[in-house]
Amino acid sequence: MKKLLIIFSYKYPFSPPVEQFLHMEMPYHSSEDTDIWFVPYARDCSNEKYDISEIKHISIKQVKRKKRFVELFGGVVGIIGSVGNTYLELNGILHKRDTEKKVCLSSFLRTTIQSQSLYREIKATINIDDLKDYSDIVLYSYWLNPMATAICFYKQFLKKHGFPNVRAIARAHGQGDLYLEPDTGKYRPNAALLSKELNRIYSISQNGMNHLKEQGLTNVEVSRLGVKKIAFPDEVKKRDRKLIVSCSVINSNKRVIDIAKAISQLNMPVSWVHFGSGSEENALLQWCKDNMPQNIEWKLNGWTLNKDVLSFYLENRPDTFVNLSYVEGIPVSIMEAMSCGIPCVATDTGASSEIVENGVNGFLVSRNLVMNEVTEAIRKCLGASSEGLKRAALKTATQKYCAETNFQQFSNEIWKLKAGEEGR
Hints:
By secondary structure, the chain is α/β, with parallel strands linked by helices. The chain folds into two domains: about 1-225 and about 405-415, Glycogen Phosphorylase B (Rossmann fold), CATH 3.40.50; about 240-400, Rossmann fold. Helices cover about 40% and strands about 15% of the residues. The protein is built from 14 helices and 13 strands. Strands 3-2-1-4-5-6-7 form a seven-stranded parallel sheet. A six-stranded parallel sheet has the order 10-9-8-11-12-13, sandwiched between helices. Helix 4 crosses helix 5 (about 145-160), helix 8 runs parallel beside helix 9 and helix 11 crosses helix 13. The radius of gyration is 23 Å and the shape is globular. It starts with a strand and ends in an 8-residue tail after the last helix.
């Protein structure tokens, strides 16, 4: 009998590329003895898809979302019906400090209503009779968000209906599914349920695992993401000045305008190219027009396909990559830069210190952004030790963030988890 992997994504395999690193992971799950079902649950999936032609035995079962008020009603009914879990959560909230009770209650209700609603829609999307031909089933939520809680409810449902061979897992990334809301203390809604029903939660960083354990989750391991090995071209475009690159959305968290400010303080001829667009793009463009000195050539490339960004890196061999995020999980953009032998300057936030080793393959700067400190870190990457930094960056990507190693190990491990091995 075949195995079945059901992947609950936000949009994948549909575009735009919200989950491009899930796409990189997929070949390692593909095999003759495994069927793969994609269950995207976003309301606004486009008709465009990633090229999934090489992934074997796939089906797409897109969740047909109901109107919001219908989902809200269904979620409330679900909370009432799940008496044991609701009582446990409310009892825990009552023992919180007075300053935390209201925000924790709001977080629990909002998250659990969404989870119960998604759970009901999973049951409507997947015909339970179609599961009977599989010897092993893994429910895989790509995000530790309300969908991860929903598959806990769904796992309970399947067990009650004669499927003892089902297990559930989730990944945890960073902003949006790992870090908690302000003022909730360390309260993670439904932590007891997630610890009991998820066979494993896989954090993409050690820092993330530490956060999750502080939130009361007990079944957490590290499983890092990875980037593909790069085939370097024989020829590199010749440049008459040092090249700095950055790649991210342009918003208040990514602080790309501060990258521009730090670069503007360099007293040498350099070029800066940024890939990405966002809400602060026009403000960044205007700042550069008004303030960038003549010794700095700059270009804002806007949103660019990932493969084209990597091609640019390989053809031009930039001297440094800069990321000044205020909040991060672990920046995959830095993994990609290092896979092309580019040393990085990054804020010491989230798990950035797990990939950027200060003075070895780049430099860490304070997330509070002392601008002279950032400029000096960039200057060091452009200086006499740049070749050593480049070699170290490539070594980090090859040894620690290799897609083939990390994703194959992850795929092998999830099938070794035993049904009933929950809540370690």
